[in-house]
Design goal:
A 5-stranded antiparallel β-sheet has the order 6-5-4-3-7, with helices on one face. Strands 1-2 form a two-stranded antiparallel ribbon. The chain has one domain. The protein is mainly beta.
Amino acid sequence: MLIFGDFMDISVGDKLLMRKNHPCGNNIFSVTRIGMDFRLVCDKCGHEIMIPRKKAEKGVKRIIKPGENI
């Protein structure tokens, strides 16, 4: 996991393996927007959530780049 300054190296198109599960039971989310807030889409049910950057980075277990296996 790469960290530049105070921020992790997360970009649009990455998948995030989160520490906590979504209510549908999945813990893998796709990143569709970055900035002060992240827009994440659940890979199982398609629900979109917006969460602050700090909370998203704190909850990340692993960053999965495009083309990388889970």
